[in-house]
Amino acid sequence: MKHHAEKYGFILAAALLSITVTACQPNGERLTVVDPATRHVDQQPVVRDGADRADTKRQLTVVRTPKEQTGREVTVAGTHKIKTATIQSWISEDEVEIETIRLVKAGTETEEPQYEYKILIMNLLNGQTREPTGEEGRQMDGYMFVKETFSPEGEYSFIQKWKDKYTADNFVKDRRTGELIEIPGDNYLELGGWLNADTYILAAGSMNGRGEIRQISAADGNVKTLPLEDPDVDIFTQFGVSHGRIYYTDNHQVLKVFDPGQTKPVSLIRDVWNFQLSPNSQYISVSTVTQSGAFQGSELLIYDSAGTLQGTLIGKGDLITYVTWSPDSDKLAFDVYTEKQPGMNGVYLFDTQSGQVSPLAPYYAPTEPLPHPTYPLSWSPSGHRLGITVEDSNSQLVTQVIDFIFK
Most distant CA pair in the chain: distance in Å? Predict the structure, then answer.
């Protein structure tokens, strides 16, 4: 593995918003974030079940870019190149758990190539690697994989220990005392989140149907099943929890929300391909898929937790993938694929504080053709580093970790 860092004097200034987003508009009109004081957007209203779908189409308002657009500057300070590896998780701001890939036997006309996979801990500052030890190891107590999610105040964590790809044992840990409480019940999904400081919501899944939604008390491990009356969801493919509310998409790509204690959801947004709740619960990033009308493709928009549109387009193309919030909720990284030019292509960074959208292609993909990520984008704990994994010209995985400075 080779490690290197390069310094750049390039500033991703706020002016990039108009340059970048204009490139994706065939008519040259400029899209920007709407002034929160005016909110001049024909936004989609909240839609309850049974409402007329024809009256709920999202409208887009184009606004003028201010002459003097202010905001913090985002500087790319350097990159770290990791060959033939993907990021599995962040151990700290400077250390990452990576999975290396080595070709053991080349493929033939009758046999597939054979690869060897290995888990290592890599220091980004010096490029040195070491074997994982203790809780850093991926296999613990005979389990295949262990996932831990911390509560908002950090007092508790919800732990899933996966026996195989389909079943897991669940636990709640009091991080102040170290006490571990096992939670009863089968589990087939990783979907869930913290409802508040001491309550976890788990979409347990099932081999038959959508399974239960369980409300778990971190203090004593008590489990309560939450009823949900929605004939339009057979299985939870997307599920999120934040600030006392539960979000999911149904069979018809409608984003819905309900509070514990309610049995019927409220419909928020239609044509949802993917949604991501920001860690601070203030925003929902929504990538849509339009299959009819003037535009056929994907759009990326930002809503608040009530389903109110917070501005205009963040991204637009044939397909938007790997949308990932930074841990501090200040930044959103995403990849856009567009077949025709001009258009948005590659990985972009949206800064919620300045409203700017900046292309990152020069730093992870300096050559043509432009490769797109083949693995989820990965933020460091502070949100000052972003890992992007692509394939090089030899079809080998390469991970670039980009360092940011925010002023």
Answer: 65
How far is residue 53 from each of residues 271, 288, 392, 406, measured CA to CA in Å? 11, 16, 44, 42
Helices vs. strands in the chain: H and E counts, helices first: 2, 29
User: Over the Cα atoms of the chain, what is R_g?
Assistant: 22
Taking residues 230-259, what's their average pLDDT?
93
Write the DSSP assignment of 118-179 as a string of letters. Answer: EEEEEETTT--EE---GGGSS--TT-SEEEEEE-TTSSEEEEEEESSSS-EEEEEEETTT--
Report the alpha-carbon distance of residue 274 to residue 51 in Å, rounded: 22
According to the model, what pLDDT value does residue 31 have? 27
pLDDT of residue 291: 65
54 DSSP assignment: G
Collapsing DSSP states into helix, strand and coil, what is residue 226?
Answer: coil
Token pair 């890599």: residue: 122
**Interior/surface letters 316-351, b for 16+ CB within 10 angstroms, e for the rest:** bbeebbbbbbbebbbbbbbbbbbeeeebbbbbbbbb
Residue 381, preceding peptide bond in cis (omega within 30° of 0):
no
Give dist(CA 187, CA 200) in Å, integer: 14
Task: Pick the closest to residue 63 from 312, 358, 356, 285 (CA basis).
Answer: 312
Is 49 in contact with 264 (CB distance < 8 Å)?
Answer: yes
223-246: average pLDDT: 93
Q: Are 348 and 20 in contact (CB under 8 A)?
A: yes
Asked if 13 and 355 touch (Cβ cutoff 8 Å), the reply is no
Q: What's the rounded mean pLDDT across residues 265-282?
A: 90
Q: How far is CA 240 from CA 53, 201, 250, 277, in A?
A: 24, 9, 13, 7
Q: What is the pLDDT of residue 292?
A: 61
Phi, psi (rounded to 5 degrees) for 142: 85, 0
What are 129-177's pLDDT values in tens digits?
999 876 555 445 667 778 888 898 889 999 998 888 778 899 999 999 9
Q: What is the pTM of this model?
A: 0.75
24 pLDDT above the threshold of 70: no
